[in-house]
């Protein structure tokens, strides 16, 4: 079953409008992941399981409810700044496949260094392992990794650009700074 694609319009930094296509199951997966946040208390609009999924009125109503859900979601500061939400709203989210490979997470948890677990606690360590696993899958991580690899390649080919990259590293925290009016 292909499912019905819904369109999300996302205004990124009030500059450009990005249209994303997403399936309801992606909202379900996002909702499941966000339940980990203590301040997240939203309810995902129902899918209307009694419809065929092709009823125009039902689809329009679902889109309206999902839009309201996203607006409420973006009002939660900690949740809206999470990797899960950023990844969901990114252009690359169309390519992103939610997966939960328990074997990898279990391996990260089972092979935990006793000293670290003793310092932070088992539950906190396991949550950190899950967060790390999801972050490594995210488009945000892949973009950052790509930029770092590109920088290494350019520096190996053009060592004289070292000063430029050092200056960029010093100034990069200025990009994306939140400026309140």
If you had to describe this structure to a student in words, what would you say it looks like?
The chain has 181 residues and is mostly helical. The chain folds into 3 domains: 1-96, 2-Layer Sandwich (PX Domain), CATH 3.30.1520; 99-137, no CATH class; 141-174, no CATH class. It is built from 9 helices and 2 strands; from the N terminus they run E-E-H-H-H-H-H-H-H-H-H. It has a two-stranded antiparallel ribbon. A hairpin with a 3-residue loop joins strand 1 (5-12) and strand 2 (16-23). Helix 5 (102-110) crosses helix 7 (122-137) and helix 6 (114-120) packs across helix 7 (122-137). The longest helix is centred in the C-terminal third of the chain and has 19 residues, at 139-157. The termini are far apart. InterPro entries: PX_dom, PX_dom_sf, SortingNexin/PXDomain-PKLike. Keywords: Cytoplasm. It is found in: Cytoplasm.
């Amino acid at each position: 079953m292909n499912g019905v694609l819904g369109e999300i319009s996302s205004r990124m930094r009030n500059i450009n409008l990005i249209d994303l296509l997403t399936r309801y199951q992606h909202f379900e997966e996002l909702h499941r992941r966000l339940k980990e946040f203590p301040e997240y208390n939203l309810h995902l609009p129902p899918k209307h399981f009694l419809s065929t999924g092709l009823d125009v009125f039902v689809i329009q109503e679902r889109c309206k409810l999902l839009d309201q859900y996203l607006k409420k979601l973006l009002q939660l500061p900690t949740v809206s700044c999470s990797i899960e939400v950023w990844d969901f709203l990114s252009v690359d989210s169309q390519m992103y496949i939610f997966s939960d490979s328990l074997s990898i997470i279990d391996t990260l948890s089972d092979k935990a260094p006793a000293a670290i677990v003793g310092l932070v606690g088992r539950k906190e360590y396991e949550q950190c392992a899950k967060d790390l696993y999801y972050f490594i899958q995210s488009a945000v991580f892949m973009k950052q990794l790509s930029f770092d690899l590109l920088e290494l390649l350019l520096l190996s080919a053009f060592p004289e650009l070292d000063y430029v990259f050092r200056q960029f590293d010093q100034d990069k925290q200025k990009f994306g700074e939140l400026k309140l009016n």
